[in-house]
Amino acid sequence: MKFLLVFDFDHTIVDENSDTWIVKCAPEKKLPNGLRNSYRPGCWTEYMGRVFVYLGDNGVKEDEMKRTMTTIPFTAGMVDLLGFIGENKELFDCIIVSDSNTVFIDWILKAADFHKVFDEVFTNPAAFSSTGYLTVQNFHAHRCAKCPKNLCKRKVLKEFLDKQLERGVSYTQIVYIGDGGNDLCPVMFLKKDDIAMPRQGYTLEKKISQLAQDLRPVECSVLVWSCATEIMSYLKVLIKE
């Protein structure tokens, strides 16, 4: 009996957007209008690439970025939840599927000593160039019309489950914890024994309830949370059953 926990990162594990948090490193803690207005829907990763060039051009170094990123606050109750999962790793496999990047997530998890809680992190690959600039790439290519072009979380989840099945691992239940519009696609892939846990007041919750109103409800169960201790309470019940 094993459960798979799938976490989004921004506004789910941490209480902010890691990509916008890095702007605290910019001169006067803001971006020039021209750069801010250069974002095009579905092309966030390219936009962040331009942000990182701007930070590099202004002499922002890796250590300053790291110091800034590790001050990002965890969502209420999340430290307790991740501690609980860490103590029960024999029951839970745990992955992150996020539109952030490998460098930010790695820094934040390691600083709080939570990197061992997660078996795998699926996010946009990032690295520092020889000139000290942070660079980021799209996670993959896909054909899903519903998702941003760099990442379809349903595809990631499906490929992970297929790979686990090849290893002989299947899950009693998948618990999907997220907040954003790009979490809807993987939630619609979940089956009736699975559970989606959208964060209260965020886009994912609104989209799921809109589907229910349109009489096209998601197949899985839905449990809304505002503090991560509510997720922990659910998991405690789950492992007792």
From TrEMBL:
One of its GO terms (molecular function) is phosphatase activity. It holds the Pfam family Put_Phosphatase. The keyword Membrane does not apply. The active site is at D8 (nucleophile), D10 (proton donor). PANTHER family: PHOSPHATASE, ORPHAN 1, 2, PYRIDOXAL PHOSPHATE PHOSPHATASE PHOSPHO2. Belongs to the HAD-like hydrolase superfamily. PHOSPHO family. This is PHOP2 phosphatase. Its cofactor is Mg(2+). Gene3D superfamilies: HAD superfamily/HAD-like (3.40.50.1000). It comes from Fregetta grallaria (White-bellied storm-petrel). Substrate binds at D19, D99. Keywords: Hydrolase, Magnesium, Metal-binding. Mg(2+) binds at D8, D10, D179. InterPro entries: HAD-like_sf (IPR036412), HAD_hydro_PyrdxlP_Pase-like (IPR006384), HAD_sf (IPR023214), Pase_PHOSPHO-typ (IPR016965). The keyword Glycosyltransferase does not apply.
